[in-house]
Amino acid sequence: MSDLFEITLIVLAAVVVGMTAGIVVVRLARHVRESRRAALAAGPRRALLAFVADNGETGGDELVAIGDDAWSAAEPAALSLLGKLRGEAHLGLVSVFLRRGTARAALRDLRSRSAVRRARAAQILGDLELRQAVPDLCRLLTDRHSEVRVVAVRALGRIGDPAAAWRLIASLDQPDQVPSLLVTHTLVQLGPETEVTLSAALDHPEARVRVVCLDALGLLGAAGSLPRVSRVLREDPVPEVRVSAAASLGRFGTRSAVEPLTAALAPARPTELRAAAARALGDLGSPTAVPALIELVHDDAYRVAHEAAQALRRLGPAGLRALQELLDEEANRARANGIGAHARPSSGVAHAREALALAAITSPGRLVTTA
User: What is the distance between the alpha carbons of residues 244 and 157, in angstroms, rounded to a whole number?
Assistant: First the structure.
């Protein structure tokens, strides 16, 4: 029995020694490999930094002439720079990558069996802003791996080709969906040329698609879509979509949006929609909304009254005067009725005081003195 125990200990000790030696060998090999790559990358990295410092005007031929091994070692740093640069320096570095065949290799890797290689290729093509890659990147919007789809959406936004708008919108209507905020941001990056496409997509049967398109139209300030968005605000059967329509109208910055937003304040409308419309009128910045908003400060729904008071605050002097007049009227009424100073104020007065107090903190120079 003791012999078996000793043999077991010897075997275990041999295993431990073997594992330790293996770890040491692996770490040593990794250190040697990293040192070699660092040495190979040192020269190209200096040339790369000089190229960028010179705004890409000189040194491109030298970067193209670098050997494959040295360039492979320096390529991660070059790709990192590519995603950060703008202007002439970015165009110059893009030219270097194109001449070295990086775009061709990335286009090939978009069809790789490896999800990691597909995602990496999509990121490279996005950083290169290669419009030629848009059809293949759009194909990745239905990739079976969500990480690949996310990278493809970001790449399309970086390229900024409006032709990708429909495919991006369609990617929202699938079981494993791309995040809505990411698609919204990308659609905005595609620019105002997407307004017609986004407006047409407001007829899409999926509510989530309509919400994303409304958000994108608002962020683009696409005032040409105001009639279409106003109709969504009036008629869409989904409350969330109508709330998004109200927010979009508030971002358009045009007085024509006051009328549809004011109509959405009607007592028969859902509370969430009325609150969103009041907030949007404050974002719109038109003093013509003051009469409609001041009536809502006494509304029974807390959210509606609160948003109306805050909207008046954001409207500037006209809104602040209306809030102050509300307080003055309440004070005069209290004195006329012999109500003491310590009486509990109405909810409208409380909302007005809150808004005026916040105005005193954020923009004291514009505030009317409160009672």
Answer: 22
* Total-model pTM: 0.80
SS3 268: coil
Answer yes or no: are the C-beta atoms of 247 and 284 closer than 8 Å: no
* CA pair distance 226, 202, nearest whole angstrom: 12
**Class of the domain covering 89-161:** mainly alpha
What are the helix and strand counts (H, E) for the chain?
20, 0
Residue 302: helix, strand or coil by DSSP? Answer: helix
Q: At 2, is the pLDDT very low, low, confident or very high (cuts 50, 70, 90)?
A: low
Boundaries of every domain in the chain: 89-161, 285-371
Residue 135 has, within 13 A of its CA and on its CB side, a CA count of 1
Mean pLDDT across the stretch 302-318?
94
pLDDT tens digits, one per residue of 10-64: 777 777 777 877 787 777 667 666 655 555 556 667 777 777 777 767 767 777 7
- From the number of C-beta atoms within 10 Å of its C-beta (0-12, 13-18, 19+), residue 246 rates as buried
The contacts found for 225-228 with CB under 8 angstroms, 24 or more apart, are 225/195, 225/198, 225/199, 226/252, 226/254, 226/256, 226/257, 228/199, 228/202
Tokens 């290689």 belong to 117
Question: Per residue in 101-153, pLDDT tens?
Answer: 888 999 999 999 999 999 999 999 999 999 999 999 999 999 999 999 999 99
| Contact yes or no for 264/246 (Cβ under 8 A) | yes
For 219-231, how does the pLDDT look when each residue is reduced to its tens digit (9 = 90+)? 999 999 999 999 9
Q: Give kind and range of the element (H or E) at residue 80.
A: helix 68-82
Q: Long-range contacts made by residues 268-272, C-beta under 8 angstroms, separation at least 24?
A: 270/239, 271/301, 271/303, 271/304, 272/239, 272/243, 272/303
The two tokens of residue 243 are 């709330």
Judged by DSSP in three states, 367 sits in coil
Cα separation of 156 and 154, whole Å? Answer: 5
How many Å separate Cα 159 from the centre of its chain?
A: 16
Nearest to 218 by CA among 234, 198, 193: 198
